[in-house]
């Protein structure tokens, strides 16, 4: 049994992982958060501002692994420094999601800039010698988004991005049928991360978790087979998206309380434009390092997930 610290522990993915770790009964868990929560069996909740490095170092004494779930770069660097001072062995940055092509896509995925900055900070920290072991968990998009509006995980908020299986409507960029996307279920992500915490070997810096690699065309074909009718495809021009225009009203307004009402429309447009363009550049295709390191784990394939959610509906 080792001590695990979750920073930003009230976030949606953090709560998914927290439930899993508590269920294994294999770890002592400290949950750090800006808000105050009552401690529960197996979890010690600690309120912190993350602003005092000395306080963080004290809180992390005896911790084996820190998992970070917030994206603020300066706060993340302070947490990393505190972890090093406290003698923490392993660190998980808030890298979750997109793959190694993300940095090349920051012109359209600007909100990912903090995680790239933190990745460089960790890389530089270990440049001369390894100061702290870390892995970037990358898994593409959640397969669960294809199940919207059905609730297929306990905490993760979903919404349709490219593919709306409820309405059988797809937003596609012209020429994108052969573009690849990695889809991994929330359960698979959580289970692999739990397995990685018990893995005795050295963690890979790039930690790809690959559920399924599928093309846009394959998703359309699966939808047609399972729903018994074809997608209505709305084609968008790449040059319009690159010019900052999303020429459709058929996109989801992001259901996040953290986004102010007056920013909801422009931010939703920005996210959809960025996603559609970055798919074509490979940002949502990830490697399979953790698949290889945990070879006995069986991943849920996209078509099996879709059949479970949509067959007969």
UniProtKB/TrEMBL annotation:
Protein origin, superkingdom: Eukaryota
GO molecular function ontology, one term from the record: oxidoreductase activity
Database matches in SUPFAM superfamilies: NAD(P)-binding Rossmann-fold domains (SSF51735)
Keywords: NADP, Oxidoreductase
Record flagged with keyword Oxidoreductase: yes
Keyword Chaperone included in the entry's annotation: no
Annotated ranges, domain NmrA-like: 3-243
InterPro entries per the UniProt record, alphabetical: NAD(P)-bd_dom_sf, NmrA-like, NmrA/Isoflavone_reductase-like
Pfam families assigned: NmrA
Family stated for the protein in its record: Belongs to the NmrA-type oxidoreductase family. Isoflavone reductase subfamily.
Name the record gives this protein: Uu.00g018860.m01.CDS01
Organism, as annotated: Anthostomella pinea
């Amino acid at each position: 049994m080792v001590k695990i610290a979750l920073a930003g522990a009230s976030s949606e993915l953090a709560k998914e992982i927290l439930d899993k770790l508590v269920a294994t009964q294999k770890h002592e868990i400290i949950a750090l958060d800006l808000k105050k929560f009552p401690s529960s069996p197996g979890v010690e909740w600690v309120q912190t501002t993350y602003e005092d490095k000395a306080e963080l170092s004290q809180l992390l004494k005896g911790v084996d692994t820190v998992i970070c779930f917030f994206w603020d770069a300066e706060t993340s660097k302070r947490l990393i420094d505190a972890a090093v001072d406290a003698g923490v062995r392993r660190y998980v940055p808030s890298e979750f999601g997109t793959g190694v092509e993300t940095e090349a896509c920051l012109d359209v995925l600007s909100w990912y800039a903090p995680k790239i900055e933190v990745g460089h900070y960790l890389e530089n920290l270990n440049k001369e010698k390894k100061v702290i072991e870390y892995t970037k968990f990358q898994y593409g998009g959640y397969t669960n988004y294809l199940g919207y509006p059905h609730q297929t995980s306990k905490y993760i908020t979903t919404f349709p991005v490219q593919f709306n299986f409820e309405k059988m409507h797809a937003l596609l960029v012209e020429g994108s049928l052969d573009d690849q996307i990695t889809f991994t279920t929330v359960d698979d992500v959580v289970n692999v991360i739990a397995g990685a915490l018990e893995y005795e070997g050295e963690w890979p810096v790039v930690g790809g978790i690959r559920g399924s690699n599928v093309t846009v065309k394959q998703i359309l074909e699966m939808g047609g087979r399972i729903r018994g009718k074809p997608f209505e495809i709305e084609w968008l021009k790449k040059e319009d998206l690159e010019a900052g225009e999303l020429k459709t009203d058929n996109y989801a307004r992001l259901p996040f309380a953290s986004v102010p009402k007056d920013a909801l429309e422009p931010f939703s447009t920005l996210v959809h434009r960025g996603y559609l363009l970055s798919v074509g550049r490979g940002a949502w295709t990830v490697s399979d390092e953790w698949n290889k390191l945990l070879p006995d784990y069986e991943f849920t394939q996209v078509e099996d997930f879709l059949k479970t959610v949509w067959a007969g509906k």
